[in-house]
Design goal:
The protein has about 200 residues and is an alpha+beta fold. The chain has 5 helices and 9 strands. It has a domain of about 130 residues: Aminopeptidase (3-Layer(aba) Sandwich), CATH 3.40.630.30. The protein has a 9-stranded mixed sheet, sandwiched between helices. Strand 4 and strand 5 form a beta hairpin. The radius of gyration is 16 Å and the shape is globular. The structure holds coenzyme A.
Length: about 200
């Protein structure tokens, strides 16, 4: 695969970030049953725009197995959110469409319906954003929540992402809004415990 000179080699299996009661860690095939149960949630289907194949056992397994390659190719880092208290998989957060030349990426997340409303989505976004800015050297993160995705818009707006003047939805089209975060706009109170993941 063609690699830009600035593309770092990310070791997916070594990514381990922890803060505020959650861990962001690689998906493994052991996550399959719980992952499959969570991604059937109607609002995850609707708002996360996941390929339908990922909701089947075969598709989800193939996707999990592709993640180390996608990370080492510098294209995508898709991580499981684990609740440290229970050890349960409670969600997913990802950097996608990473451009090492522009030093930017999109972010995506979902949280299991029964785990929502406890700040997990917000904490996961902050943690992956902090890591992307401080360790990966990215300078801009973007998201395109659907206009009627009120939970996501509220989560992204919690001192994380901001609308940019004169810009409307891009990736998601006219029914989405475009929001961005930069290193200086991120309010981080404590450092994540982490293992260096760059080769
Ligand atoms: C969006 C999502 C990730 C939020 O996860 P979460 O862990 O519940 O988020 P948080 O607890 O950090 O808080 C989200 C904020 O949204 C608010 N919120 C939750 N549900 C809401 C709703 N239906 N309408 C409006 N606001 C809502 C919460 O009150 C909270 O704001 P507050 O703390 O100021 O009150 C989760 O709802 C989800 O997975 N949705 C389906 C998939 C999705 O939309 N992904 C994002 C695609 S862009």
């Amino acid at each position: 695969m063609w690699r830009c000179a600035e593309t770092p080699r990310l070791r997916y299996r070594r990514i381990a970030l922890e803060r505020d009661g959650i861990a962001l860690r690689p998906f493994s095939t052991g996550d399959l049953p719980r992952l499959l149960a969570i991604v059937q949630a109607p609002d995850i289907v609707r708002f996360s725009h996941l390929p339908s194949a990922w909701r089947t056992e075969e598709g989800a397994l193939a996707y999990i197995r592709s993640l180390p390659r996608l990370a080492s190719g510098g294209q995508k880092v898709d991580l499981a959110i684990e609740a440290l208290r229970t050890g349960l998989l409670v969600g997913r957060v990802a950097l996608r469409n990473i451009s090492w030349r522009r030093r930017g990426a999109g972010v995506a997340t979902w949280v299991a319906p029964e785990a929502r409303g406890h700040g997990i989505g917000t904490k996961a976004l902050r943690l992956i954003s902090d890591w992307a800015f401080s360790e990966l050297g990215l300078l801009r993160l973007e998201a395109d929540p659907d206009r009627d995705n009120f939970a996501s818009r509220r989560m992204l707006g919690r001192r994380l992402f901001r609308r940019e003047n004169g810009r409307s939805g891009r990736g998601g089209g006219p029914d989405s809004c475009h929001v961005c975060a930069y290193p200086r706009t991120l309010h981080v109170t404590s450092s994540p415990r982490r293992i260096l993941t760059l080769a």
